[in-house]
Amino acid sequence: MKRMTRVLALLLTFTMVAAACGSDDDGGADAAPATTAAPATTAAPATTAAPATTAAPATTAAPTVFDYGVTDDTIRVGAIADLSGRFAGLTTHIVDAQTVYWDMVNRNGGIDGKQVEFVVLDNAYDTATHLERYEVMRDTGGSGVVILSNSTGSPHTAAISEMVAEDNLATIPLSWYSAWADDDYGSHVFETGTNYCYEGMNGVEYMNDNLVDGEAKLAVISFPGEYGQDGAVGAKIAAEALGIEVVYDGEAAVIPGADQTPVITGLVDSGANMVWLTTSPGLTAEIMGGAAAQGFEAVWSGNSPSYSYVLLATELAPYLEANFLQSTYNLTWGSSAGPGMVQMEAEMLAARPDSAISDAYVIGWLEGMATHQILEQAARNKDMTRAGVVAAANQVSVDYGGLTPNQSWSGSPGENVVRSSVLFSLDLSIYTPEATVATGGSTGSVLLEEAYMGSVAAAHEYDGACFSAS
Amino acid sequence: MSLLPVVLAANAVDTFVQTFFRGAALGSLYALLALSFVLVFKASQTVNFAEGAMALAGTWFLSMVFVDWDIPGRWLGGPTWIHWCLAVVLAAGMTAVIGLVVERVAIRPLIGQPHFSMAMVTLGIEVVITIVAVDAVHLTPRVLAVPWGADTFKIGGAFVAWSYLAAMVMAGAAFLGTWRFFKTRAGVAMRATAFDQEAALAQGINVGRVFAIAWGLGAALAALSGIFASMAPWGPAGVVSRDGAFFVFRALPAVVLGGLDSVVGALVGGLIIGFAEVFAGQYLADHASLLGYGYQQVVPYVVMLIGLLIRPYGIFGTKEVRRV
Amino acid sequence: MRGRPNLYTSYEAETQLFPTTTKKVLLGVGLLVLVLMPFDLWVVDQIPVVRFLGDSIWLRLVNKMLIFIIGALGLHLLSGLAGQLSLGHSFFGGVGACTAVLVGGKASTNLWGWGMPMWVWLPAAGVVAALIGVAIAPTAVRVRGLYLGIVTLGLVFIGLHLSRVFPEIAGPGDLGRKWPRLELRFWKEEDPFLDFSRDGHWFWFDVSKHQKTYFFLLLLVILMAWWAVNLGRTRTGRALAAIRDRDIAAEIMGVPEFRYKTTAFALSSFYAGISGALFASFVGQVPPEQWSLRASVTFLAALLIGGMGRVSGVFMGSFFVVMSHRFVEEIVDWAKHQAEGEGLFSSVFDFFISRGSGDGGLISVAQTALGYPLPASALDEIIYGALIVIFLLFEPLGMYGIWIKVRNYWKGWPFSY
């Protein structure tokens, strides 16, 4: 009998599942069910302002046209982000900042008098799941969106790239792969900031010019794949152009989850005095720790995802402070007092006072800004169809308020690809590990160059990805 | 950012000594984990796949106890490193409680079911504990405040990290403790249970308590290995991170090579695999492009397969007597 | 006398797959529903779960489930039927996928591929995986139980390493390469005569690519499942079951253990290879890291949750494993609506749901960042893990066991106790 109760309880659960999924389905027979599989949708709050009168002036007679993802009073903006996979720690903060951004936009009257509804779905850093989520985003019924403001991951974004072009859905990737500016993707995939490849060129050139005494000997260490090898190839292009000897070539040599002895051995034995890493913070710590434990000293730097301010809390902090050049695509939390930074900090303070400060917030904020300005441009063009949004993205010039150099996707790939990266040194004395948004603080980065473009990156002729599979 | 002169291990002997310590330290960690697997297997004939999650929980507890609450330190005087060691013991104890709960709630009801149902249950538990712990870790870095940090000392021209030495001492202590434990009344009871559960039951041994002890000890050892695997020369370099949990799966070849039910096997298997991985990494590094990068990850499994072809129950494992 | 349940007058009658008329009718109706599911029909819309599974958004997930079922059927043959624990099932999926892309993929400077049509690469994927299964069988047969589990776990890592040694086949790590599409050609001609990866027009219906793929996969699953079920009733199947139940006894009775275990490995790998090839082709581009331990564990979880040793259990378990995350999401979403609404239990839901930093509750719908209260994305992982535990603790026979209990309850009603 006891067992029977359990069975009944389970049955009840299943009925509830069925009811839950069934009850959402309203509307006509051929309308797609309104089962928005959205774990975190920002419901548009009722605005106190009256945007209708101000935003739709009577002077322009033609009404704005729109097709999918936009209605008379809402605009649906989508994000397929990694909320539970390998990069969840980073991506959740990025998405959270964007949520705050859209709340701010809605409070200020929305876009063209429409409220923005931010639809976030989880891809768990899995390609198949990403494609399933994309089915929701591209939907031509009530579930679809008009722009994807975040598509986490390179293989994932590459997997949807063909469909994105078919569906005319503008997409901002959360990945800085050098292929995105290429014509194959460039018409629909809009990368924010520079890419791994140019970042590698800039990092190597800056280290060579400013940080290394005497003859430079470079070691390149990276993951295999689109991220690792893109960055490593960039570093090697710079080394060749500047006549720097590559004494250890560890392109694709770092395999996550393995003991890193071969890489450390190769690095230490090579006698390199500058190192370019394209790894993750964990692997950076392991390789750097292993090399330092053998008395190895050099100037280190690496692609933005190789470093995280979390490393400053580790035992390697003094070594990092002395030897590491941080490279990123945008400013870090609190590292400047530009208008974009001030606005972001104020908004985050109002919305998330108890959250820990994070550099990832800036990335989310940038994605929000880019999407916002693309949509504003589309609204000015009176065309908020998906095709209209893509066209707007190809003509807009985005003002990032100083968070990163302003950007435009018009013109040829060689013209519009961003070639400058942001460089920092590290300072332990200003780093505040326990800081929340309310208390304020720093992630330990001291700005060296706001927009550093080395001679190699400036002269490089862009013709597609630095590293590609084929 | 200054550039200090590059100091290298001067000659082949120094390189060997350095590599030896790396290998011995890694082997000690594997042995520690293998011991934890073996204790659980001896009692309940299953592999505890939740060990990684328990290791993660252990590092998290240490960070809470020592850094956030300053637990023994707020009442005791004396040097900090003693406080830290006590905090480690406390964290291991807290993880042992998780082990006890898991055993009581999820393992004991499954006695008599196929062994891999139990193994699957531990996989389910792994998912739950990991997610809860990762969410608790948040993005704020949680430090372990290891007293010796990333410091090294020199033997001749060879650099040796203090963490390597600490890992070896810890593993040595754990094995010595286990050996002593098997001489006690509870230890004998455990050995009897491992030998024949029904016979032990008939002799009046409280098999349930033996299970509890094994799972508690297993979880505590997992916590210890998680803490030591999170120190400076290894991946997470002194912060709580999920990498520490993944480390556990690397220890499985060591367990199988030594034999799933042998304590001596855990030690020998752990050391063999640790040395094999590090020495192959050091001395075959020049051939990496031929062998394929990451070949060192496959070395433990190759060694394990060769071992199993010779002895299908591991080097020290008991051959199962199969009855019709 | 005729027509009474559980009365069999011959051996043939007893071993029939669908012995009673009721079962035959149910099978027919079930198949009809499955075929009609992706279409927007009034009749189908009345069936609670089916109504939304056929929707274009969900159909991709259903297709993934169908591919998953093929792989799970393979593991069923090895673990459910022959009792051999394998954590290396995803390795064989990877072998199948790599074979498929080598045989069917497009070659370029850094990639190999022979560009052959699907009727070559799909069987080839299965056959090559089966051959590799045969090749490792001598090692695998020597070890038993959990030892075997860990040895097969080694396969996963060796496979990952091989993918890095041959990026020309698998594509670079973390990126992968383009797989051949699901489309049928006679040979290498320009236009396929049947293209499952593009929207099209069949007879006088418009069919989307997902609907096309669905029918193709459904047919394949029915064939593969039919084969798997029948296998259990043959000499081989009985031999495998005998080995599972007591291998020494089986050997004494003249069942050659080595030969049949090798057969089990080959068959299981064949299914895994087909499943892997289909999956990669279906997704279009998969990184080599896809074929991980986690994927193997998912197959095993499907078997255990569905009910070990039963083909119907494979179906139920696969449904659960592939769909459960989405169901949890839907429930959280539904609970959120309830909490916001004016319903009878809205305060109860409000208690569990947190809508901002000041609002208490277990699940956060307001923010997506990790930490407490838990975001819904973390919650579905936890529930998935917890359900594995709960199933194994309370219902070792899995969902199949629940079904049997429910059936027996109604059979015996009103005297069921």
Overview in brief:
The complex is a heterotrimer of chains A (470), B (324) and C (417). With 470 residues, chain A is α/β, with parallel strands linked by helices.
Give your account of this protein's structure:
The complex is a heterotrimer of chains A (470), B (324) and C (417). Chain A contains 16 helices and 16 strands. Chain A has 470 residues and is of the alpha/beta class. Chain A folds into two domains: 39-44 and 61-194 and 340-405, 3-Layer(aba) Sandwich (Rossmann fold), CATH 3.40.50; 196-328 and 420-459, Response regulator (Rossmann fold, 3-Layer(aba) Sandwich), CATH 3.40.50.2300. In chain A, strand 7, helix 8 (226-242) and strand 8 (245-250) form a beta-alpha-beta unit. The longest helix of chain A is centred in the first third of the chain and has 22 residues, at 2-23. The radius of gyration of chain A is 24 Å and the shape is globular. Chain B starts with 11 loop residues before the first helix and ends in a 14-residue tail after the last helix. Chain B has one domain (18-246). In chain B, 69% of the residues lie in helices and 2% in strands. By secondary structure, chain B is an all-alpha fold. Chain B contains 14 helices and two strands. In chain C, the strands form four sheets. A three-stranded parallel beta sheet of chain C has the order 7-8-9. In chain C, strands 1-6 form a two-stranded antiparallel sheet. In chain C, strands 2-3 form a two-stranded antiparallel sheet. Chain C is globular, with a radius of gyration of 23 Å. Chains in contact: A-B, A-C, B-C. Chains A and C meet through helix 1, helix 3, helix 4, helix 5 and helix 8 of A and helix 5, helix 13, strand 6, helix 15 and helix 17 of C.
